[in-house]
Amino acid sequence: MRYNILITTLTDVFNILQISSDQLDKVINAYLTGEGTVTLSGKKYYLNKLREIKIYTHEKDINPEEFKARLIKAGKLRTDLFGENYLHP
User: Using CA atoms, how far apart are residues 58 and 78, in angstroms rounded to an integer?
Assistant: First the structure.
């Protein structure tokens, strides 16, 4: 099973797409211990001033780019305060 996460902080909204259960555990542990960051596959994600975290599951393995394309086609692409795009499942 793969996981997609939507994270909202005080100043940012972003996705972490198609992660494994081990990577999800890292995110959850960072949240529970109050760590300000978590690093997955060499990329650092900032969790400071976390407002919301949503975890979505799906059974099928799907290419992250194909998944993004489907959400964009469905009108799920949003823009944060800084003009950065994120996907809202």
Answer: 21
